Amino acid sequence: MGKVYIVGAGPGDPELLTLKALKAIKKADVILYDRLINPEILLHAKPGCELVYVGKEDGKHILEQDKINFLLYEFAKSNEIVVRLKGGDPFVFGRGGEEAIFLKEKGIPFEIVPGITSAISVPLYAGVPVTHRGVASSFVVVTGHGSKGQFPDINWKSLVGIDTVIFLMGIANRQKIAENLIKAGKSPETPVIFIEKGTTKEQKEIESTLEEVAQGKVKVHPPAIFLVGEVVRLRGKINWFEEALGEVRV
User: pLDDT tens digits for 46-93?
Assistant: First the structure.
């Protein structure tokens, strides 16, 4: 019986992979990976490692979650090291908990390797901190879509008092999200930012307001982070990544 490592691959930049994640990837016999995994990360796999794509595209799963669970079980029975590689952190809307519970019930040894979540790191690459003294003392990470593609069931009024609200997987529902936030009491003039392909060379930022998003005026392409809050106004003072792209990276 082998062991399964549930590994977070970080937000996109392969240099943000943790040392522990890299170690697991290098010794894996099988890697089951998601759509947003940077291909450069998979280059660290050893010769002969079996790479199995189990991602989701355009709202459609290549494999349903129960089938992915079954694959983890089957591969663990015949391989020493199996890595389940997920974007960001596997337990921030990554369904890592479901896989861990399944493995526990099946008696399969597993280890969790946290990853850098895109919810915090991607805004930083756009020069937007999720908290800042005198501007934002609280933040929350919210899913932008519910189960089976439905609109999420969210207590919108509870978000009004949160300084920074970060939506993951919320691009398709951005207009309805903005409408609900305004209806709940958020100012229509609240600044927002969308960050496409964050932490990569293709990163793109779109700044706007809740009102403009609610009116359907903002075009965005996934994958992207949707952040709402006054911290967006700090971007001009903190933005660093665009300049770094033209320099030798550390």
Answer: 999 999 999 876 555 568 999 999 999 999 999 999 999 999 999 999
Is 89 one of the catalytic residues?
A: no
Catalytic, out of 13, 86, 169, 186 = 169
What gap in Å lies between CA 228 and CA 210, rounded to an integer? Answer: 8
Active site residue 34: yes
What's the half-sphere exposure (Cβ side, CA atoms, 13 Å) at 174? 30
5 has a pLDDT exceeding 70: yes
Note if the pTM is more than 0.90.
Answer: yes
> What is the percent of the chain with per-residue pLDDT over 70, rounded to a whole number?
96
Domains of the chain: 3-113 (3.40.1010.10), 118-245 (3.30.950.10)
As a whole number of angstroms, the distance between CA 120 and CA 107 comes to 34
Instruction: Identify whether 58 is a catalytic site residue.
Output: no
> Cis before residue 223, ω within 30 degrees of 0?
yes
Let me know: does 33 contact 53? Beta carbons within 8 Å. yes
> 39-47 long-range contacts, Cβ below 8 Å, gap at least 24?
40/14, 41/9, 41/14, 41/17, 41/85
Single out the catalytic residue among 56, 106, 176, 204.
56
Q: Residue 226 belongs to what H/E stretch?
A: strand 224-228
Out of 13, 29, 34, 89, the active site residue is 34
Q: Do 22 and 44 meet the contact criterion of CB atoms below 8 Å apart?
A: yes
Output the DSSP codes for 163-195. Answer: SEEEEES-STTHHHHHHHHHHHT--TT-EEEEE
